[in-house]
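Lab meeting, action items carried over

1. Structure of the two-component assembly. Owner: GW. Status: complete.
Input record:
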Amino acid sequence: MTAHSTRRDPMSKGLAVLNRIASLPVLDRLNLRGPSEQAVYHGARVGFRTAAAVSRGFTRVPGKGAPVRPVAARESGIFDLTPTEDQQMLVGLVDEFAAEVVRPAVEKAEAATDTPSDLVAAAAELGLPLLGLPEDLGGLAAERSATTGALVAEALGKGDMGIGAALLAPGSVATAIGLWGDAAQQATYLPAFTGADVPAAALAVAEPYALFDPMALRTTARKVPGGYVLEGVKSGVIRGAAAELFVVAARLDDDRHGLFVLESTTPGLLIETDPSMGLRAAALSRLVLDGVTVSDDALLAESVDGYADSVRLARIAWSSLALGAMRAVLDYVGPYVKERKAFGEPVAHRQSVAFMVADIAIELEGARLATLRAASRADLGMPFAREAALARRLCTDYGMKIGTDGVQLLGGHGFTKEHPVERWYRDLRAVGVMEGGLLV
Amino acid sequence: MINLETPKKFRTFVEQAHRVATEFLRANSRKYDLAEHTYPKELDILAALVDGMGDSGEGQGAGATGVRRASGDSGDGVRNASNMASVLSVAETCWGDVGLTLSMPRQGLGNSAIASVATDEQLERFKGMWASMAITEPACGSDSAAITTTAVKDGDAYVLNGEKIFVTSGERSDAVVVWATLDKSLGRAAIKSFVVPKSLPGITVERLEHKLGIKASDTATIVLDNCRVPAENLLGDPEVHVDKGFAGVMQTFDNTRPLVAAMAVGCARASLDRTREILEEAGVVVDYDRPAMAQSAAAATFLRMEADWEAAYLMMLEAAWMADNRKPNSLEASMAKAKAGRVGNQITLTCVELAGTLGYGEDELLEKWARDSKILDIFEGTQQIQQLIVARRVLGLSSAELR
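Predicted assembly:
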């Protein structure tokens, strides 16, 4: 698939999405496969420090003219909680993908500490990497679409947060280049994302320090003639070992921050696997930058001004993924407490149990509305730092509350791997921990 | 298209409500907190202003009667209408003062009840009347199906007997909407609501409560002693439909719970706004981009409170938006009330703690808001009743299964 040179008219906006839905056979194909051939796993690589994946070698393309940017959505002036028809269609599809393909793949992916490559390919075929890109760059977004991104992440998170993160990571890199790259950077890197063979790619912001603050990074980009030298360690890097391309956040000499595009073959760049409490399928890694020299054009042209937004959009993305897992907990514990009997009747008939379920529903609703508000403000070009922070706070606190109550409601059974609640418990701890990695 | 901002057409109106809250309500807040049971005469001017805004359409249909669900075709598209205007304006006036908002003439909960279930004829007949609401009795609160006040049909009237407590504006209102049972043996289906003008013989205000908060609002005990109420003052259907249960009178709550959520949202916002100023004076500035844990404990606490506030505020808007668009909102109304009630209380109490003895003293209103907020997690259905409703709905359990 090649980049589109002409803008679609509004009538065909929905068709772009429909076209993607035409790849539904992907779902069928995966469903029909036997477990033995379902995936090729790389195997768990615990504690190994390796060279990064071999890159396809991105050919520098000289930029011509101004970069293409997504158009801000127009404010309707009407309070509304109804997704657009396009969004409903897309979310319906991703819901199905999450339930039929992602969820059944979770256990093996967790064991393998990676997301199966055919699942990644299926997500690419569905167009997930293109959601945040404007149509003129070969993407699917007619308008700025953080809300669409949030709804899709939520739907994927219902399947699995770890796999969801793995599937959204390449698109997040594409979105970053689309939002903050200049024409040359867009022309150099984006065609790979709009093509058939989407590269694994990761946005690396977090660092492994207590009280980590993305607004005061320890990773530095020191200016040298003709370029920068990057030093530091990044953590929470999604599928770092497989990634061909990284977008790395670093502190500049003037203490501002910027995003640098690095190919995996850049000398001085090492990957350390970093298996964590949860998000196992996201193959979390560390990226060690040891005197990595890059040229001036590695700095995404407008990323210094856009850096704070990148942090905020990542928070909305993680919050959205968490909302999916929170919903999964609610959907799972409801039937369980009605089924499980104690003292001669379903435990759901006890207020101490039933009120826990009520609170899950209440807090999920509040966190969801706050996340959607943050996303919709981003789309409208309004300030959204406050809303993104509050959504993250709610998803962190109540996501974890819901995670732990999910296990509690199942008692000892919840503690075993016979039920998925222990996984949601581990995954939901990630929301308050992760920074960067994803963008809506 | 998903958009959770204040509707464009309400923005000017919300700003007006905020100015009114500052000039009329906040300005008199401490005065009537100290002078419990004194009639806040400043409100007469304000009430006239609100009536005028309502008649001119400037009020966007907000107010106690804004909860009425219009009948007929809504036309295409998403509506932002009087339910949303009402919660937005109540949140603003309660930012000024909850007790004074509750004391606004002709804006009683009884007015909301009438607007929710009255026929068009009744609505016209009771227009301009200030109506309070009487459900609770000395021996029953949350279990409103257990009320003992009776209504016996006698010719063209019902004869009411019983005692009602916790009647907000019970002394000042023109009429009281009274819940009474037509036949105790038929259970909740036999409970009907009656508009009882205070001018009728047989209805008396016995006494006023001295309270923890919302002292500007009078809370009365009302006794009905062979009070003859015209039969046409029964709200809704006079027949007893055992199969329909409580539906008729309970419908009121779908409309009033978002309003109480709005009160908690407004009161908590007042505390947050003032606490932010006090913290800034103390050198603590809340940064939304830096992680809470990397900031001071006070800033982190503030962020957590503001996040809870945001959730309550948006859930309040959701419940009102659903009502405006004729979507059944019982679940969302209860969720909004549960969330706003509890976080409103937590936030106002925590703000006092953050401000220390400054917040505890009467020089500031923080201690007052922390007293006012408590009732908002109690009336129109306690926290626990909301959880019960939400749990039954989410789990699909009957009131017999989950008691």
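2. GW to write a short summary for the group page. Key points so far: Confidence is low (pLDDT under 50) at residues 1-15, 29-46 of chain A. The first helix of chain A runs from residue 13 to 21.
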